[in-house]
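Attaching the record inline, Q. Sequence:
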Amino acid sequence: MSALAQALAATVAISLISFVGVVFAFSKRWTERTEMLLLSFAAGVLLSTVFLELLPEAIERAAGDGRVFAAALVAMIAFFFLERLLHGFHVHEEGRAIASRYMIVIGDGVHNFVDGVVIAASFLAGPGIGLATTLAVIAHEIPQEIADYGILVRSKLSPRRALAVNFASGLTAVVGTLACFHFRSLVEPNIGWFLTATAGMFIYVAASDLIPELHKPEHRHRWVYTAPFLLGIALMAALTAFVGNGHAGGS
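Structure, as predicted:
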C-alpha cells in the first residue's frame, strides 16, 4: 500500500471518530472520571510518541542537524496563538449560545486539517512513524470529539445533525492529507522539520491542555489517573520496539 493510501486510510479512520459521541450520548457509563482516564492515557501516548518516535526520526532524517528543533518551537508558538484565536471552541461548559455551534465547526475544521498534514508527513517518513502518529492523534481525538458532540447537541442541533456536522468538520483531515501529498516535492526533502513541528504540536497539546486538567484539585482520587498515563507510554514504547525490530529484521 502506498504512503498516500496509508495516510488517507488513517485520516478517514480519524474522521470516523466523530461518530463516537453517539455511543456515549445515550449511555450512563460516561462520567467525568471516564473522561479523565482517557485524557491521562492520551497525554502518555502523545509525550511518548514525541520522544520515542518523532524526535529520533527527525534527527536521523535531518542528518543530525539540531536546527530542526526550531520547528518544534515554532509549532508550539503557532498553537499558542491559534488557541488564543479560537479560544472557547473546545470549552465543555453547558449553556453555550448558538454561536458556539459555528465556532466548534471552524475550530475543529482547522484542527483536523492540521492533523491531516501531520499524519501525511509522518507516513512520508515511514509506515511505523505514520502508525505511531495516527495512534497519538486518535488518543486525544476521542474525548475531544465526545465533548464537541455534546456541545453541538446543546446548541439545539438534533443528534443526527450534530453527528453529520461533526463528521463534516472531521473530513478536513483528509483535505490536509491531500494538500500535503500535493506538495510532496516540498515536504519530503524537509521531512525532519515536519516531524519536529509535529512533536511541538503534541507537546503543546499534552502540556497545556491534558496534563493541567489532570492536576486540577477538584478531581478526586487524582492518583488513579497515573495508571492510564503510564499505560499510554508503555503502549507506545512497545510499538516503537516492535517497529524497530521490524526494520532491523528487514535490513
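Residues 89-97, 246-251 have pLDDT under 50 and may be disordered. Residues 32-61 form the longest helix (30 residues).

More tomorrow.
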